[in-house]
Amino acid sequence: MIGKAALPLLLLPALPCMAGSLQFSQPLDCTLGETCFIQNFVDRDPGPGWRDHLCGALSYDGHQGTDFALPTVADMAAGVTVRAAAPGRVLRTRDGEEDGAMAAGADVSAAECGNAVVIAHEDGWQSVYCHLREGSVRVQPGAIVLNGAPLAEVGMSGAAAFPHLHFALYHNGQLVDPFQPDLTESCTLAPTDTLFEPELTAAATGLIAAGFATTPPDYATIQTELPRLDTTTATAPALIAWGYGWGIQAGDILRVHIDGPGGFSFTHDTPFDAPKVRFYRLAGKKMPPGGWPPGPYRATLEILRAGTPVATREIRIEITD
User: Structure pTM?
Assistant: First the structure.
């Protein structure tokens, strides 16, 4: 996460004429809400607080970009390509910054943006791509790139506490929020208001993943690589359902409901008294006397806001003799 791009922006003479009006595509290879999600939007509050374009809290003070986050470090290690969001000329690049340096306690103040690429587009536009994976930058300053050209891979370099792409847009040196460029304060967003083509639908709240466990997984494990458990035995010490999500708001409830053979039914509500950019919660039952009845079990996890589900995940596990 960064408060500013931390790479000097350089306005160049206009690029050669490009047909049609400038539009921006999604700048990385992922499916929003499934294999990536937006963890932070541009901060729209000019004061010491913060506010996203929907008047929510999915940002932080002074945040000048959109953070496209990957669920885990393992997803970063598998490689997710960052692509040019529009045709243009590469202005500046940086590589060689270590991934995870900030998490390891290193001073990254001299390179908050980490490994990065800055591209100049027509009509005074620039796009900035930060926190790229070390050693992955594929372009050099001066290169002309087409829309969708591979630039690098998503990383965790610079001031990044999690693997993500910090994507920022500037027009004539001024920051622009691609999800609401006209600076209105209506707290609503019609899809045609964004600068993305095709339009991006970015949920402000959701469940990244959910799963079963027989002992509680720690949060560090969830963030590194999602555990997967499809089967267990009748003597498992507990049956736990966990949920990992983003954008929870104060007053929301995470409801976990598990049902299974022999009329087994369990429901637990976890209320949230403060907003959280990411969250991890779990609920479950200890093994009953005589063990778990064999068969299929199902858990439904819901984020409830004012009693209405805003996100749902369903998971299953098979218990054997």
Answer: 0.87
